[in-house]
C-alpha cells in the first residue's frame, strides 16, 4: 500500500529526547516499511527513517507541543470559506497564510492582504513555497523582505472620511498613541516633549510581552508633571485627544508596515513628527503633513516649528490619499484584475 | 460583485479597542457594501457589519496578535501533502486538526490519529464542524469528550519488540519517568518511595510552564538522600533505568490519553503502580502488569507487594498487546476499511 504519514514538526521523528507522538509515528512508519509498504513520511528534516522523507522544514521546530485555541477557530473558518467559495467572485483574505494551501485549490479568485511585518525568518520558505498566491502589501516598504511574492498592488489603509472631524485650531500639547514597546520608542517622544517644555499625553496599551520593558524603561520616566499617562484609551477618547493635539509624535524604530495613527492624525488636521522607518516615507509628505526627522535634535527643532504646518493641508492630504473610498477603489481594481486575468 | 472578506478572529470587526487590521477590514467592508457590492464577512460573532456576517466563533479570540513560526511550516507541509495526495492510497495525519479543511477535499482516503487530550473547550465546535473526518483514538477513554467524532478505531501505541530487553532480575529502586508537572504527581511518587524506604530515581524534564511548580512544590522535597533527580534523560539512560527498576511509579492525576512509559516498563518486565486515570485502566492488567491504586495507602501497600508480580508476565502482556507489529496491523485494518468503505 502507498501510505503517507504526516507528523507534527515540533520534534524530529523519532525525537531526540521526549516526544511521545513522534516516537510512535516513527515506530509505525518503520514497521510499515518493514512490512513492505511504500511509505512517505512528511516530517522535519532531522528525522531518521527508512521511508521516503519529505521535510517541510530542515530542523524540528521546538520542544514544547503548543496548542492554541485560536487555531481551532481559524480552521473552522477556513472550512466555512471553502464550503461557500463558489458563491463568490472574489475571496479576500486577511489571515496571514493559514489559508494558502486550500485557497489555491478552490477555483475562486482570491487575494490576501498582508497586514504584518514580513521580515520574519519563517516567511522566506513559506512564500517560496507559495509564489503564485496573489498578495497585496499595505506599503511598498513592507514588501522588501519578500521580493518573490506575487504582489498585485500596494493598497494603503483608508479611514471613512467622517470618522474624525477636522479640528482647525489645535490645543497646546503633543500626543503619543499606540503600544508601549521598545520599537515604538515612547522614550524618544518623552524626550522631545520635555526638551520643548510641552505637555505629552500618552494613550497606549502595554502588551504582556512588554510589561518588563514598561516597568524598567518607561515607568521611571513618567514621573515628570508634563507627562500624562492615560493607559489604553477608547476610540472616542482617541478622537478627542488626537484632534486637538499640536502634533502626533511617531518616533518609531522598526519597519512598521503601515502607521494607521498617522493618517488618523492627518484626518483631524494634526501634523506628525516621525522617524522615516518602514512605511513612514510613503505616508508622510515632509513639510506638508508634518516633518520626517532622523535624530532627536532634528525632532526637537521640527516640534518647535510645527506651527508652520498648515492643519488644512494635513486634512487635504488625508482626503487625497487615505479615505476608505480610495482604499475600496484600489481593492476593486485588484479584484477586477484577478477576474480578467 | 460578490465578495468574501476573511478576517482574523483575534479581535471583532471593528475591534473594541486597538486592532489595526480588523479596523481596516471593517472600513473596507462597509465601504464595499455602501458601494452596492454583495459582501460576506467571515469574522468573530461580536463583529458589527452591514455585510452578511459568518462567524466561526461567537467571541473574538484574544487581544494579542500572536504569530508562530511553527504555523508557517505546518502550512508548507499541508501544501506538500495536498500536492502529492493522488500518489497515495491513504494519508495518515498526526497533526491535530490543521489539515481537516483540506484533507476532506483531496479525494484521497485519510485518517487522523489524535494524540492529545480532547477535553479542551475549542475542540467541541471544531469536531462538530468536522463530523465526517475519520479519526482514531489512542485509548477508548480519550474519546469521552468528543462522542460525535467519526471514530474508526482505538489503536494502542506499540513499541518495536526489540527496543527494550527483558530484564529478569530487577534492582532495588523505584523509578519515575516523564515530565514534572502538577498532573503527573511526582509528589505522590516521592511519598510512596519514602514510605517504603526505597530509593527513587527521577528522570524527568521540566517544561517552561512548569518551572514555578518545580521550584515551589517539588524542589524542597528532593533534598532527601533516597531521591535521585536526574533531569531529562536520553533513550539509552532510560532503558537502563527503567529495565532494572523494581517498579515504575505512575501516580497521575489527569486523563492521560496513553501512558507510553507504562508499556516501555512492561517491555522490560518492569511492573507499574498507577492511578486509574485516562487510559490507565485499559493499559494495566491489575495483578498481572502491576497494581492499579486509588489512594496513597493502597499505593504503598502495592509497592511493598510488588515482588508478587511476575516480571515475565509483564513482558508477555507487552508482546500480546503493545508491539509495533500489533499497532501497524491495527492501522492497516483501518486503512483497508477506509479503502473498501
TrEMBL record, chains A, B:
Q: State one Pfam family annotation.
A: Glycos_transf_1
Q: Which UniProt keywords apply?
A: Transferase
In terms of superkingdom, the source organism counts as Bacteria
Drop me one GO molecular function for this one. glycosyltransferase activity
Domain Glycosyltransferase subfamily 4-like N-terminal: from-to ranges: 18-124
Q: What InterPro entries does this protein's entry cite?
A: Glyco_trans_1, Glyco_trans_4-like_N
Which PANTHER family is this protein grouped with? BLL5217 PROTEIN, GLYCOSYLTRANSFERASE
Know the name of this protein?
Answer: Glycosyl transferase
Amino acid at each position: 500500500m502507498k501510505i503517507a504519514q504526516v507528523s507534527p514538526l515540533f520534534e524530529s521523528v523519532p525525537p531526540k529526547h521526549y516526544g511521545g507522538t513522534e516516537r510512535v509515528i516513527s515506530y509505525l512508519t518503520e514497521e510499515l516499511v518493514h512490512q513492505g509498504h511504500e511509505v512517505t513520511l512528511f516530517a522535519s528534516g532531522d528525522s531518521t527513517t527508512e521511508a521516503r522523507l519529505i521535510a517541510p522544514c530542515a530542523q524540528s521546530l521546538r520542544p514544547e507541543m503548543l496548542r492554541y485555541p485560536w487555531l481551532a477557530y481559524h480552521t473552522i473558518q477556513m472550512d466555512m470559506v471553502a464550503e461557500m467559495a463558489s458563491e463568490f467572485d472574489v475571496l479576500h483574505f486577511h489571515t496571514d497564510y493559514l489559508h494558502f494551501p486550500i485557497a489555491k485549490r478552490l477555483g475562486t479568485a482570491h487575494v490576501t492582504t498582508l497586514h504584518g511585518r514580513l521580515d520574519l525568518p519563517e516567511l522566506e520558505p513559506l512564500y517560496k513555497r507559495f509564489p503564485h498566491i496573489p498578495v497585496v502589501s499595505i506599503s511598498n516598504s513592507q514588501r522588501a523582505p519578500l521580493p518573490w511574492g506575487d504582489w498585485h498592488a500596494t493598497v494603503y489603509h483608508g479611514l471613512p472620511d467622517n470618522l474624525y472631524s477636522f479640528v482647525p485650531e489645535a490645543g497646546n500639547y503633543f500626543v503619543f498613541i499606540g503600544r508601549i514597546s521598545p520599537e515604538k520608542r515612547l522614550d524618544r517622544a518623552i524626550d522631545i516633549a520635555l526638551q520643548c517644555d510641552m505637555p505629552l499625553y500618552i494613550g497606549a496599551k502595554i502588551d504582556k510581552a512588554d510589561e518588563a520593558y514598561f516597568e524598567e524603561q518607561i515607568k521611571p520616566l513618567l514621573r515628570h508633571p508634563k507627562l500624562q499617562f492615560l493607559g489604553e484609551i477608547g476610540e472616542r477618547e482617541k478622537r478627542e485627544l488626537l484632534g486637538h493635539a499640536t502634533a502626533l509624535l511617531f518616533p518609531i524604530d522598526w519597519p512598521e508596515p503601515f502607521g494607521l495613527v498617522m493618517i488618523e492624525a492627518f484626518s483631524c488636521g494634526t501634523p506628525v513628527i516621525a522617524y522615516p522607518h518602514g512605511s513612514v516615507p510613503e505616508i508622510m509628505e515632509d513639510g506638508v503633513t508634518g516633518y520626517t526627522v532622523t535624530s532627536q535634535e532634528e525632532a526637537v527643532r521640527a516640534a518647535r516649528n510645527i506651527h508652520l504646518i498648515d492643519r488644512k493641508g494635513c486634512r487635504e492630504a488625508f482626503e487625497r490619499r487615505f479615505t476608505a473610498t480610495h482604499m475600496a477603489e484600489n481593492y476593486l481594481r485588484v479584484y477586477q484584475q484577478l477576474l480578467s486575468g
